[in-house]
Fold MerR family transcriptional regulator.
Amino acid sequence: MSIGELSQRSGASPRMLRYYEQQGLLNPVRGDNGYRRYCPDAVTTVAQIRGLLDAGLPTDAIRQILPCAHGSEPTIDPCPEILSALAHEKERLDERIRHLSTSRDTLDRYLIATHAALHRD
């Protein structure tokens, strides 16, 4: 199928599909005319990519995980390399959550102090 067809079937823009190709996540073949041709399974692959991106994974991790992903649901073969990559990404997200929580708590303290100062005057 063409990039336009894949875009319609997957809901991803042609620009995003080209980005996925640049990142090594999609591998279309080129026809004699130079146009990209995608296999029918590419719709499922795009769904997996989008799901993994929505989970906060970077494209480097997705490139590792994608060969073990099956179907449009988040189903991945339990090979040790993939489990390690997923655990690493979860740890990275946990650290970001801790940092964001600290930032939010700091902002809360400033808001409370500022609100209290306004009502003292």
The chain has a mean pLDDT of 87. The longest strand covers residues 29-30. Strands lie at 29-30, 36-37, 69-70, 75-76. Residues 93 and 99 are 10 Å apart (CA to CA).
